[in-house]
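Course exercise 7: structure representation. Students receive a sequence record and must write out the corresponding structure in token form. The form below is the worked example handed out in class, using NAD(P)-dependent dehydrogenase (Short-subunit alcohol dehydrogenase family) (321 residues). Read each field label carefully; the graders check that inputs and outputs are placed in the correct fields and that the protein name is recorded exactly as given.

STUDENT ID: A-19
EXERCISE PROTEIN: NAD(P)-dependent dehydrogenase (Short-subunit alcohol dehydrogenase family)
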Amino acid sequence: MNDLQGRTVLVTGAGRGIGRAEALHLASLGANVVVNDPGVAVDGHGGDASVAEAVAAQIRDRGGRAVADTGSVTDWDAAERMVALAVAEFGDLHAVVNNAATEVNKGLERLTEAEFDGVVAVKLKGAFAVSRWAAAHWRRRRDAGDRAGRAIVNTASGSGLYNPLPTQSNYASANAAVAAMTTVHALELGRLGVRVNCVVPSMVRTRLTLGVPGMDDAPDGPDPKDPAVVAPLVSYLVGPDCAFTGQVLSVRGGAVTPVRGWELGEGIEPEGTAWTQAELAARLGALPLQDPFDRLAASLGSALGTQGRQDIEAMISAQLD
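STUDENT ANSWER:
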């Protein structure tokens, strides 16, 4: 029997890229899959119902069970309907994979209100809305005596967590918020038997990353940038044997690495009850503060074929100007 036989998983943004790879992999392990994707462009505009249906049809052609959904995760009622669709089609919902994302990359002074709101709505509000309606369903099931294990897997990005990428005020902020929300929901939903974890794909070839230097190259053999590298981890996290919750896990190639998030570093304390400006000025400089350019260089340098701060600064200037 396959690992996920009989379990129903709702995957958002499952028409292309990472979400598609996840949906196909989950189905290959026996899961019933709700393939959600409105078929929009990278920036969130437009729509194509055939995108989700093509993936669902591919699963069914391989002997699996799948249904397409084209609702927008930013629509509160549509999020409720996709949860209801899973229950109507397959009898229950066991897991949600919040993968949907859009992207508009511009410098701060050029980014419009609509472009900021749209990206944050899909990534952050969308993950919240679908999780909220899934949790409401699971609360009703628990109150009726059902103690089956459930799971939410959120999807964030290195942008906003450990890659402070310029031109991504909207995308980076939303991803950092999704990681924070993962911890909150893990603490809240444990009482319902729900595990909540987050995957952080890095250097994966999708529509959103094709403009990144080095992402167009595909090797003849195994491809560490293929979206499929994320799917095995997701299949474990949604399965009944996953033993942990509240974790944020980076995936780059074959490497899976816990992301620690914001942690308190070395600090200073005033000699009295409060600081003066002069005292702070004298002592803050002695703290081991991290430069964001050095942080970005350390994270991306080897992957992009560049080394050091000067190369990173030149890349940023070229993007922004």
